[in-house]
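target protein:
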Amino acid sequence: MQIKERHERILHLLEAEGMVKNAQLAALFSVTNETIRKDLEALENAECLLRVHGGATRVADKRQGLPLPAREAQRRYEKAAVARAAVDLIEPGDTVFFDASSTVLSMAGQLPEMPVTVLTNAHHVIVVLGQRAQCDLICTGGNYEERSRSYVGPIAEDALKRFVIKCLFLGVDGLHPDVGASEVNPGQAVLKERLIARAEKVCVVCDSSKLGRKSPFIFAQNSQIDVLVTDDRADGAAIQHYRSAGVEVIQARLDGALGI
């Protein structure tokens, strides 16, 4: 069977069932799991599907974005590696902001025990860090969004006006060399945009699949980004572009067996 035909059959199956599993497809086409992984990666790059742990799902409505549980399932190994590298930027006594992205949520789970002030608009960050004795945890409040499980709007923005933020940790839906950092969710984009002026350091954290992607709502120009934390599968030209622009780039090392 030709690759094109296999891709077409994968998409037909996905349309019918809503989700496909790597093992299911490998058995169906009598190919290896690695072949299926490459198939799904190619189809995701063509924006035909979204990979999750062990398989793939249909593409969601881009105007709304995926619910948080679905975002957590995507590229979870890459996100965990990026999060580990990003957490190393935090020092005892810092005041930091954690946004509602799934990569930053992974940072919350890996934050070492130390005295730190964490500002956040993300409900799940509050759940993860709520029991930390040394963590001064401050929630914005605001209009609650179930899909992102976070708070947005004027109340959320006003809650942060009195803080000087050492490090602003922001996930992205896209990071493009021409347009900058962008979001699929307008409420999240506005909040992030307004926080940038209050931060000493703006840190974008994202896996390499986000590089070169554009989404509808731009919240930061590339010149406003101080640090980019991504993984070591990122395109070399893209990395060089950001370094040449004065952005500190940190690449988390991925084990070759971590692909999904």
Remarks:
- DSSP finds ten helices and 15 strands in the chain.
